[in-house]
Specification:
Rossmann fold; 7 helices; binds S-adenosylmethionine
Amino acid sequence: MGFYRDQLLPRFIDKACGTESVGRWRTRCLEGISGVVVEPGFGSGTNLPYYPPEVSKVYAIDPAVLGQQLAAERLAASPIDVEFVGLDGQRIPLDDNSCDAGVLTFTLCTIADPMAALSELRRVIKPGGALHFCEHGLAPDERLQAWQFRIDPVQKRLFDGCHVSRNHPELLTNAGFEIAWSDADFADGPKPWSYFHIGKAVQPA
Ligand SMILES: C[S@@+](CC[C@H](N)C(=O)[O-])C[C@H]1O[C@@H](n2cnc3c(N)ncnc32)[C@H](O)[C@@H]1O
């Protein structure tokens, strides 16, 4: 898996997630975000062009270090100070209450222990701060869900742990976040992979 996971997969994700059509979801997801942001699953910086000017700093966390190279153009074009601070969203090397907001885009689907990552995000995001999310996940109708559960074992092997059947708003609520707003709809692409959960969850004050 080494060459595939470390070299090919980050390049594939950069292309697949860096499209204009996904960009429209990013714009909506990142609306209203400001200040110091923590972003587990920073990848190749696909969110950078969509951050509003009110964001001053992004703490980037991702195990795929090739992402930092693939992000070079986006980093150079962005006024935001990006600091790479770690490799694992399940163990965030930041102080308690050190961030105004968090971002998860197409990442909670992949993190092995999503509750551990969410508990870390609750620790580092200040009370009243927000976690902006956009993830592909569990579809509403049972026939499609059945396909998603069938696809998951193969998906996990091919895409380094990625699931298509996670219920992201439910995970966020179970972790203690309060959903300020959320929406879900089909994006472009094959249905099992393209039911997107988008929204903003708030760290209770
Ligand atoms: C599908 S990509 C999404 C990248 C980016 N967030 C985007 O929206 O295009 C999933 C990312 O999660 C990263 N990832 C996987 N496990 C992780 C973990 N435990 N902590 C932080 N990031 C992780 C992967 O390396 C990959 O860059």
